[in-house]
Amino acid sequence: MKIHNFAETPSLVSQYLSEMRNTTVQTDRLRFRRNLERIGEIMAYELSKTLAYKNESVRTPLGVDATCQEIDEPLVLATIFRAGVPFHQGFLRYFDQAENAFVSAYRKYKEKENFDICIEYLASPRLEGKTLVLCDPMLATGASMELSYRALLTKGQPGKVHIASVIASRHAVDYMSSVMPEDSHLWVGVIDDEINTHSYIVPGLGDAGDLAYGTKE
204 — alpha (psi -120 to 50), left (phi > 0) or beta? Predict the structure, then answer.
């Protein structure tokens, strides 16, 4: 798996991450969601450089044909409910012609620090031979991402796979590298070194879903 770590080169992603981690800024839900979208937009642009393109002749208002390049890969943008929705929207703003897929994956706690990953909902087009971009802002253990990917494979084998997260733990990066196809890509805003006993990323930013949409019971 090829790792694209945006923290290796300071950019606007660094600024947005600072605001998302900051306890005095992240309580503004609108800003938090917009920062998720912004990072999705930036990642979409960078990811676009890895895609295949074809030349197309386009007629301009001056009655002259111009040779332009257009994406020559069928894209499917997939996300995991609920924190992934604004992050996914950032990708969709740039890849506006892409098909979309949605997965419901959540932690079902059996004990305080012991949980299973459950999937209750999947909506996806056929994926056979297409380029799959699976995005979820927090990649803590990698279990939800892997299980969601396995669920999506019931819709066909993608030709290419990209995983995108805002913050990942080192553990999750190593885990995903071991279970995903060798030629897949991981796009991440920053890699944090630790996860705590509750499987939250440290320093992380807290619960991205709650920060984006409010707490849940």
Answer: left
Place of tokens 């971009």: 133
DSSP at 181: -
Distance CA 34, CA 187 (A): 19
Q: Where are the beta strands (DSSP E) in the chain?
A: 2-5, 53-59, 65-71, 75-81, 99-111, 114-123, 131-135, 138-139, 160-169, 185-192, 194-195, 201-202
- Output DSSP code: residue 205: -
Per the DSSP assignment, residues forming a β-bridge with 165 are 188
Residue type, 80: I
DSSP 7: G
Q: Are 88 and 143 in contact (CB under 8 A)?
A: no
Q: How many CB atoms lie within 10 A of CB 35?
A: 27
Radius of gyration of the chain (CA): 18
Q: What is the pLDDT of residues 186-207, one digit of tens each?
A: 999 999 999 998 889 999 999 9
pTM of the model: 0.92
